[in-house]
Amino acid sequence: MNRRAWEHNASFWDETLQEGNPTHDLLLVPALRRLLDLKPGQEVLDVACGNGQDARWIARLGAQVTAFDFARASIDRAIARSQEDGLAIAFHVLDATDPDQLAKLGAGRFDAILCNMVLMDIPSIGPLIDASARLLRAGGRLVFSVTHPCFNTALASQGVERWTNEGGRVQTRVWTKVWGYKTPSITEGVAIAVQPHVQLYFDRPLDVLLGAFFSRGFVMDALDEPAFPEDTSQRPSPGFASLPEIPPVLVARMRPA
User: Fold this and answer.
1) Rg of the chain (C-alpha set)
2) CA-to-CA distance for 79 and 76, rounded, in angstroms?
3) What are the pLDDT digits (tens) for 225-242?
4) Can you give the pLDDT at residue 237?
5) What is the pTM of this model?
6) 129 neighbors 212 (Cβ within 8 angstroms)
7) Sheet of 64-69, strands arranged across
């Protein structure tokens, strides 16, 4: 079901997002660049790369990039876009939950592994973490980002309220409400309102998400919670763009101990 959804959504996502959106460009890429701390010539693995938007900006930094996705339609789009840009990126169709397929990428090969907005889309993250420990060179790092486990899940929502204060002035407050967190959940949803097919979300609390790394010998040495800047418009609307104190994403760097 998960693969079918991404195959069906591939062309829509590529045409809609192309090289990014505000969350990707303003929040994720700056944090990912800082935590990846790439040097020219280093080898990077981009996991579940979609249309290759991250693989391309990484390649432009001078890295040698290998990228994969389990949706053939996404890889076809990624290859076409990267060839148009003249970028030599090695794309593969692989399943991030299949240990045998991951092993074929080569032990001790990569300086860095990127999992950008991936782990909440994967039903089992253990095989990928296990493989990453073997795929990374000594001193290598894995950087991941996810929708924030505390604030941006299927069990959270945003709203706006307005009232008139004692001085007769209209006041506005945007809020986020969370009614579930601790129990891992699997839900159907959409990331873009009009995408053709719903996708599956695998929301995990922090102790489960980070614990999957810690139990496999990884340590975390960097953490970022990017949020949008304060909304200065007169009529803010529900959504993270109007919640400068609530981060919609979490970015972390993990290293094998």
Assistant:
1) 19
2) 5
3) 999 998 766 667 788 999
4) 79
5) 0.92
6) yes
7) 90-93, 64-69, 43-46, 110-116, 136-147, 249-256, 218-224
